[in-house]
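Q: A reviewer asked whether we had any structural model of the full assembly, not just the individual parts. We don't, so I'm hoping you can provide one. Inputs are below.
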Amino acid sequence: MQGTPETTTGTAAYTPTDRTIPTRSAQKASYDRDLVHAILDEGYVCHLGFVRDGAPVVLPTLYGRVGETLYVHGSTGSRPLRMTGQADPGLPVCLTVTHVDGLVLARSAFHHSINYRSVVVHGIAYDVTDPQEKLTALDALVDHVVPGRAADSRPANKKELAATAVIRLDLNEVSAKTRTGGVNEEPEDLTLPHWAGVLPLRKGYDAPLPEADLAPGIELPDYLAVP
Amino acid sequence: MQGTPETTTGTAAYTPTDRTIPTRSAQKASYDRDLVHAILDEGYVCHLGFVRDGAPVVLPTLYGRVGETLYVHGSTGSRPLRMTGQADPGLPVCLTVTHVDGLVLARSAFHHSINYRSVVVHGIAYDVTDPQEKLTALDALVDHVVPGRAADSRPANKKELAATAVIRLDLNEVSAKTRTGGVNEEPEDLTLPHWAGVLPLRKGYDAPLPEADLAPGIELPDYLAVP
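A: Here is a predicted structure for the entire assembly that you could use as a starting point for your response.
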């Protein structure tokens, strides 16, 4: 969407629906496409919800994004992927990605909170049957974990492709929710003898741990250098 | 459960059910109570799934544990809490907690993975109506974020208690799933010219950020000292 200015009021924002308008803390909600994409792109796992025998199921799983489509993959034998392949027209899902950025400690128990950024996507998941779309999705899944990695690994062969199912979920009914900043407090609590503030959670990764049996001469690639 | 040795084969383990026996990677599943408790206690947010109008909804939320019961709280106006209060006998939910511990980069795209620990809890959520249980639950929620914090903050007053709903979910139908260790690889891929290994994700928090208006003389409490 480069070149298309996106704002929460412009046509490029996601359209709020009954499901994406929160019943509370509405000021924390956003439908901005850039914000949604940024939150999605920073996550490693999503939590995928679906209904089985009338009850909810929530499973963590890797995902990738290509434009306005999310992809989830798994063994052809895994439950949500098998259910999607058998559902007509598809499987109703809710896919949620959450980053916990900080712990917010208030003087009052009531105002304890967390700083976070989350995206909730509602929609119908469809089995990806087009071979080219499947390859694109699998590259996106690998590049989602580490950008640039798909080009620096052996692509899936026929047997691996046949063992892997991919489902797609388009970004239509989407909202982001965020909390940032410091502590909210009742004015009369400001003089209480309790420490208050934010504990920022550590991000990123520590020094990479190479396998012991790397081929001779293999150095750590630049895209894995710890910032 | 101190003093009661717990193993995956002993009576103290959770009993597997159709919903908690995975259709694949069964060797990664565990029903060990200590492991489940440890994974739950380390998390900050869970992802709570429920069904609304036949479709799944997955929302991130704080939680706390007291023995074999999990508690989730929120505004009395929030959707899942209101739905629980109105449901008879309660609201079917699935509560999932996931830690991403490392990114596993294989020489083949297919064997890319993550090291993780997750717990999935299936059950019925009930509105907590007993005032004493509600207070205990709220303390557990605060202490879950930072152990020891509930005693070092102002407890909720009547107005705050009235505005807060708490739901309970007992740990009965529960499983943990974990992946640890290095890279799995096809033998013929070991000579490929790609770096392979694990990127361990950073844990914990960075230096606390105190509010600017702390009461005079308030020092950082010991329980917040960065290890």
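A: Points you may want to mention in the reply: DSSP finds four helices and eleven strands in chain B. The radius of gyration of chain B is 21 Å.
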